[in-house]
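Hi there, hope your week has been kind to you so far. No rush at all, and the record is pasted right below.
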Amino acid sequence: MMRSLQVRQGKPIGASERAIVNELYHILAVDDDPAQAELVTELLRLSGSFAVEWADSLQGLWERLPFRSYDAILLDYRLPDGTGLEALEGLRRRGYDTPVVMVTGQGDERLAVQALQLGAKDYLVKGSSELHKLPSLIQKTIREHHLERSVQRSVEQIRYQALLLNNVRDAVVVWSREGRITYWNPAADLLLGLNGKEFLGKPVEDVYLGLFSPQVSVPPADGTASMEIERQYRRPDGNVLWVSSRVSTLRDFGAGNRLIGYLDVFRDITERKRAEQALVLSRERYALATAAGRVGVWDWNLETGEYYIDPNLKALLGYTDGEIPNQFEAWVSHIQLEDQKAFIQEAEDNLRGLSSEFAIEHRMLHRDGTTRWIAAKGKAIRSIAGKTVRLVGTASDITQRKLMEAQIQAAHAHLTQSARLAAIGELASGVAHHINNPLTTIIAESQLLLQELPPDQHAREMAEAIVAAGWRVQRAVAQLVEFSRPATNTIAELSINETIQTALDLVGGQFQADATQLEVNLQPSLPSMRGNARQLVDLWVNLLMLARDATNDGESHRVQVRSEQARRGFIQVEIWDDGKPIPANELETMFEPNFLRPPGGRGTGVELNICQEIVRQHGGEICAQSIAGHGTVIRVSFPREGLK
């Protein structure tokens, strides 16, 4: 038997009370004593802002809970079909997180301890002088429960962010505003050859800043700008490294931009520095070669129109002296079409006195059909009257230098974009192992219950539903365990749609919890591709969680996942959301790590960089488009062959 008593207005309350009682609380009272229920209802009515529903048995409790979310439960110890302690165990077993206040006619302290141990938030004796405090006790219990949940979410977020920092490839060291080291990630241990645990809590000025040359400098407390500086570091084994370091201020943007510490993010650039030094050496050799006369010389006599081309210069393109006429037009014809206009414009500017020197790097076609980079330098010679009479200069083949610069740029880009993270897998493993044992018990007990229930028993359908749901959850647990295992370098034929579906199985429930509509449209019969399935699942999980960040504002939203075969030989996946857009000025750099200001407030600033690295390793491309009112789409394209 269940009764519902709605109490929305009571006697007038004072201003101070109104400030406390500022919302409607839904309370479920479980008590088989009508007089007690009426007493509780009257107490709450006089306090105002309570909606009370009444169940007179445990069965009534279980029937009521699935259909409404209650702010608190008032639970009597003695009920016709069980005890309040059994109800507490059942609530915990069934996964309900509603705060419970135990109300009983027995003032037994042991009973109170048992109730609190089983999850009750407080304990009140019927008929005691404290019963009038029930309304304020309920309010306090509800608010403490909300605070606990908020703290738990904050702790989980902090743990997740710490795991992210622990798994990025860049070394990270953080110290407090007072100058004490508070964080030192494993990448810093590996790069510096030190044990960061020994430095935690110590003064940064004494044990860290002076490790480098030049010494690490702390940015001013009133600014956020940072500059990337190259420093040298000598490891304990004697090896000298070059690192690129960026020191920034850490601020709590949710607390008035308050300074909370400093962050040094640095990476090993030793190989890049060696390449740069090799480039410097190459230029020095080039200068020596020029001094020895091993460069081509040209001379354009503007009065006679004669254009002299040194045979050494012609030889740079694989021709003999007689194969290229000494004419300006003949030489320009060997310049690549895209560079001819700039070459002529540079010459005209110098001849008219608009530039002090003629200097340009351009491409020319070699006799063997290849392209060579030529550096041309010259200067106009003027008569006493100021008339330009000649333009003379040199040219040299800088193709190797250009190739080396391209390699350096590629290496620098790779170092900037490289990052890997295993935090989600570690989190998944913990969740899976925590729920696996109780889940096995639920399935086994439900199967035993099925064996005892006759076929025509109404409760049999509920038992069958429990078994079916248990198996579904166990399959999800198995996927979580698989997801948590360390990634391998296994390359095999795989289905893009299967990797997307695995990611949806892992994180789809979070969209349902946020009331976000998740729309999935995967084109069937997509061709398979070669790749690392685990990395691709990581890719989709990261992109989906970023879309969840953008739509997690309490409003209703949509997220769409679509796969299709795009242009010939390519597979394309799009993830679209109608959440908070990414500002136009952040789109250009959104795939670069940014710990202080993630693009559009999505993630922590490294996820998109990780996604780009996974896509790059599979030979694919990733891009983004975000327009206010039209949503944000991240588009990923893979070639059919995937990884080689």
